Amino acid sequence: VVIEPEDAPAVALAPDDLSKPPNALHVRIIRARDLPAVDTNLLTKNSSDPYVLLECCGERARTTTKKRNLNPDYGEAFLLSRDEDEPLSLVVMDADVLSADDVMCSCTVQIQGREPRKAWYDLTHNGEQKGRIQVVTHLVYDAVEFSERARLPETDDGSRRANELCVVLRRAKNLRIADHSLIGQGSSDPFVVVRCDGASAQSRVVSKNLHPVFDELLSLRVEDGTAPISIEVRDKDMVGSDLLGRVELGAVGSLDASTDTWYQLDQQGAIRLSLRWRFNDQREPCWIEREEQR
């Protein structure tokens, strides 16, 4: 990997279409300097095995680990989806073999404007500076990388009675820790259950994540416009599941929620989703299914 000079100007990391709102954050972790030594060694000089965790809008990535290096060069590029105004979080970790990895230091990068930006950021831990990191960020509209994201199906002309509820689960954040661990802070294995009019649909499980990205379309047959919608976020266990939080959205026929919206959960955290109640001619009426089950 060719590491660019420290004083080289910032260059575009991807093409952009300024006529459309940004949806992708390109990040290049260039280098870190003056990191703390957290691994003690009686025979050699104390050092660390650092790698960088990146997170933005619920999506995560990590660099490679640089063995025994307090001034590592990375030169690694990443692409994260960015669907709202959230900063980029960078956490420098020390990789361990026989125990959980240690947090060395961290920083928060505010994303401003659409031009590529190259800068040094101070890394801190418990209020003390613990080194610095050089990063390039570039916020763009990317029509290719995220063209396959889950989308609500088109609505009908409204002349026929709606019979299908479609829900796009985008992501959740700040969920409660349900699985505690002797090593580390613990986590949860969240999934989402949507209930309405006696029907239900379930998302996939996102393992060990308190800020899961689902990006998933669920659909269920709903014919009663007065039926309330219940959204449950649950933690998957070996046997059964635990409730992490719930939100009740009211009657399906009275909702206008076709754009991504955050909803607070009753216990802790929030979930972002959109929904649409529409007619689908591929779904048979309830009375047909009841006749077939007799």
Polypeptide structure, described:
The chain is an all-beta fold. Helix content is 3%, strand content 44%. It has 1 helix and 16 strands. It has one helix spanning 286-293; strands at residues 24-33, 50-56, 59-62, 73-81, 88-94, 102-109, 117-125, 128-140, 164-173, 190-196, 199-202, 213-221, 228-236, 241-251, 261-264, 270-278. Strands 4-1-8-7 form a 4-stranded antiparallel beta sheet, with no helix packed on it. It has a 4-stranded antiparallel beta sheet with strand order 3-2-5-6, with no helix packed on it. The chain is globular and about 75 Å long. Mean pLDDT is 88; it is low at 290-294.
How large is the share of residues in beta strands?
Answer: 35-45%
Q: Which stretches of 5+ consecutive residues score pLDDT under 50?
A: 290-294
What's the gyration radius in Å? 23 Å
Strands, count = 16
Helix percentage: under 10%
Number of helices: 1
Describe the global form.
globular
Chain-wise SSE layout:
Elements: E1 24-33, E2 50-56, E3 59-62, E4 73-81, E5 88-94, E6 102-109, E7 117-125, E8 128-140, E9 164-173, E10 190-196, E11 199-202, E12 213-221, E13 228-236, E14 241-251, E15 261-264, E16 270-278, H1 286-293
Antiparallel strand pairs: 1-4, 1-8, 2-3, 2-5, 5-6, 7-8, 9-12, 9-16, 10-11, 10-13, 13-14, 15-16
